[in-house]
User: Fold this.
Amino acid sequence: MPEKTMRDAINEALHQEMAVDDTVFVIGEDVAGGNGSDGTVGCAGGVFGVTAGLYEKFGPLRCIDTPISESAIVGAAAGAALVGMRPVAEIMFSDFIGVCMDQIVNQMAKFRYMFGGKTRCPAVIRFACGAGFSAAAQHSQTMYQMMTAVPGLKVVIPSNAYDAKGLLLSAIRDDDPVLFFEPKALYQEACEVPDEPYTIPFGEAAMPREGDDVTVVAFGQMVGRAMAAIDGLEAQGISCDLVDPRTTSPLDSETILESVAATGRLVVVDESPPRCGLTADIAAMVSEKAFRSLQAPVKQVCAPHTPVPFSPDLEAEYVPSIDKIQAAIRETLQ
Amino acid sequence: MGLDKDGLLRAYRQMKTIREFEERTFTEIMNGQIAGFTHLYTGQEANAVGVCEHLSGNDTIISTHRGHGHCIARGADVKGMMAELWGAASGLCKGKGGSMHIADVDNGILGANGIVAGGPPISVGAALAAKIRGRDNVSVSFSGDGSVNQGTCFEAMNLAVVLKVPAIFVIENNYYSEHTSINYAVGCDDLKARTEGFGFPVFVADGADFFDVYRAAGEAIGHARAGNGPAGIFCEQGRFQGHFVGDPQGYRGEGELDNLRGERDCLQHFRARVGEYGDVSAEELDTIDAEVLSLIDEAVAEARTAPRPTAADLDSDVYINYAQGGA
Ligand SMILES: Cc1ncc(C[n+]2csc(CCOP(=O)(O)OP(=O)(O)O)c2C)c(N)n1
Ligand SMILES: [Mg+2]
Assistant:
């Protein structure tokens, strides 16, 4: 099977779905490649190159550059979706949710409920997210943990190229609004990705490692780190289940609970700040539903309650490290 | 003109300092010395200096992702800025902010800003404070041609008129927002008319010409200081570098960059024309050039060896006071 980067896998999913469904279109800042000095386009395909080639293939009506106007971009996607299109909007960095929060949280998330279940809003909004580039406080946040708290939104956070392709195809075909978060640190990471289209259902976790001693749940960029942490502990005779939920809303709590029932120990890893976040959410769910299986307190490994720092030295402290994940796993075994 | 000899020399020094700061930053990024996303102001120096030479005391500026020039022009410590780019604990923001968040609020710099058009509303607040306190200060927001299409920019402009506050909206047109040309992104043919439609005057300047920016800024700031409400300044000048360091710039027209560096360099223009405004010799400017270069060398040398922040610094500065129960 060919190896592809997460960037290419997402790009391929967009190409494939646009080819078979002419209600799908892409809209965002520089997604066509900017409209340069002479009006020619197609030099970039988004700042991360994820939408490269779509303009050339599908033309200006289906790959649309916009001014810097995030509220209007999200609103336009929501509106087009309400009347039957399947837009895929790009908001360059998830931090810019700050600019267009009303359209996401008050508008598209709530249409269906407010309108008595009589409508659908099959829009997808894609975001690059996460730390690792010294991009500082306004270009490094995750935001998916906040959006997970909003009823009406589905929230996807892939951890590898294979999942990204299958989840994006599901997202576009899904009839509800979907926020699709792409850890920017993973764009260049490659794995085997089939050429043909395939879907991965929402609410079904992956289990990239299986073991007996501890259940580790990790999201997005942290899945790879958790995997490295777990592999590093193997020599010490410690084996872990690793659960990658892939979508945080809906959440596959069943897989997590089954694993905890077997291991009796839980470590939850995320690179977001800790308060009211995913790790706390899962810790609470497990302590409520599987209290009697637990043999040790649940450990949360996440960022501190601070903005993301610029300095590379501080950022390395901010994002949960392999060491910190291993320490948490060991602690649950004491 | 209103600038005496000292003023002319200071303006030149400021522009030259920005130029060398940016050129050196470019080199150090290419050398792998500086992390993160860095947007250089090279070429646009006259905009920042032409405006900021009118500011003093409690006047404030707020900047953008391309903020080094604005901060230097408003008087930020160059060594502290360089240390900040290196992520050093001695940086102006202790290494926590980096290029996109350089700030020195006590000295009138309300921060570079990573969010396009994040600044204009904040500058309306600073202008409102001046009005409430009965001071004649102005509050300047710099933002790019890309920022004018953001709702926050529209809201800020309208609010400034409604409240009649001394907010100065400096729109720096360098023709692009990332890869996208202003001709595409601004839907109307006449951005000046669109902006004036909010209800304040807009003064246009050639951003390659310090003297022209200084003139336009004088008119705009004079209008606001006199209590007439907000004003706009449009500066037209391309950037000499890519959107960020590493941008392949495929969107540029043929010969565009050479033409900018060759024909529209504000430093060359200043040298060629300063004789019309005062008795300044080429030697005096050469001396400034040399002084600036050694300042930048020192700044880099100090930044390189400056102490880095440690894990203990991570969670300070989030709040001033954060009492936790049971702590
Ligand atoms: C709200 C928001 N949207 C998008 C971006 C990404 N971005 C950073 S700079 C930039 C272009 C800004 O263009 P302009 O305002 O003309 O300033 P210039 O870069 O030309 O100085 C964009 C789109 C951002 N930082 N913030
Ligand atoms: Mg611009």
